[in-house]
Amino acid sequence: MAASDIPKERKVIYNFVGSSGLRVSNICLGCMTFGKTKYMNAPTQQNEDSSHQIMDRFVQWGGNFFDTADIYGPLYSEQIVGRWLERRERDNVVVATKCNFPVGVSQNRNSVGLSRRHVTASIRASLERLHTNYVDLYQSHAWDAGTNIEETLRTFDDLVRAEKVRYVGLCNVSGWQLQKIVDTSQRLGLNPVISLQQQYSLVCRESELEPFQVCKANGIGVLPWSPLKAGLLTGKVRRGVSPSEGRLAHVAQSGVARGRGGEAFPEWTGFSDKDFDVLEAAEEIARQKGRSVAQVAIRWLLQKDVVSSVIIGATSIAQLNDNMGAANGWSLSQAEMDRLDKVSAVAKFYPYSTIDEANTHRSNPMARDYVVRSKI
To answer: What residues does the NADP-dependent oxidoreductase domain cover (predicted)?
Structure first.
């Protein structure tokens, strides 16, 4: 296969990340499936040759944005990406990675979290594994309740000033945490965060209630992860039937996908009737448009104005090609978007229900906080 087999009008488009000047492909290749270890040993994990083939094909689609983390593998994903980078023009690629979680068994009590010590040690090691002298986007992998946010943000700002990092982003935070980060950065005059990487899909829309409102009000671009909800939105999982293939099947059969405390991720162990209602609506639209269900689910995200780039994972060239088919050359109609919005809507509970009711006739596009009432 070569880039010539992909029509120009189907290749990716490029968006700015939030209000920053950084431009990335509207689809980002997530690298969590690169490298197979005892910690990440699902059948879908890829060896280095396969990973590099997937990365090469992604570039043929026009993709320039890759997302990894030190915890992926652990370490192996960054190493695989780094060896691929050696034969590429570095300036043509946007590389994102993350820190926070421990990457192995260690007696070092400081090898976790977002302290100055751990962040500086983490970026040094990531740069070595990635075979580069800078990371385009460095992200906190989650909120750290053990470190004052001022310490973390000053450290990130120092990394930008030292040219080890170009931009700073966040992952997996609540609304109040994100607002505190924004306020603290502004108060201290630090380089602002430009992105929020958050789980977001047709069956995971809770972040619309607060985090994404903070993003819209402050020019922070959203980078959705798990856009297909671990495979549910591919149509391979059926109502009332245990998954038989892919990552979901591996989790269901082995229970190996565990949180830091040993608990299984609840979103990977069962789905609600509403989830399958959403899936069936997406399947019907996919049939009508001659598209895959995955393409419809990804396209729905791409048409949300808060989204800068959607992070996909690929375990084969065929899967990558299918997902990339959502990037360009077609769109969901407003009626189709409205239908998917309605069937997947998050039930408004207090205080959101009361706030909405109180402002039923108070929408004012010129008001400073109009964004809170606007549609994600």
So the answer is: 26-344
Residue 33's nearest CA partner among 42, 24, 23 is 42
Q: Is the pLDDT of residue 7 over 60?
A: yes
Angle between helices 293-302 and 317-324 (to 10 degrees): 50
Choosing from 14, 72, 134, 350, the catalytic residue is 72
Q: What is the CATH number of the domain that holds 56?
A: 3.20.20.100
**Token digits of residue 226:** 């798990």
pLDDT digits (tens, 9 = 90+) for 283-312: 999 999 999 999 999 999 999 999 999 999
The pLDDT value given to residue 258: 45
Tell me if 37 is assigned to some domain: yes
Q: Domain total for the chain? A: 1
Q: Is residue 172 part of a domain?
A: yes
Specify whether 72 is catalytic: yes
Which sign, positive or negative, has the C-alpha torsion 180, 184, 186, 192? Answer: negative
Cβ contact 241:300 at 8 Å: no
In a domain, 3, yes or no: no
User: Which has more confidence, 36 or 20?
Assistant: 20
**CA–CA separation, 91 vs 64, rounded Å?**
10
Q: Based on the number of CB atoms within 10 Å of its own CB, is 207 exposed (0-12), middle (13-18) or buried (19 or more)?
A: buried
331 found inside a domain: yes
- Which domain range does residue 264 map to? 12-372
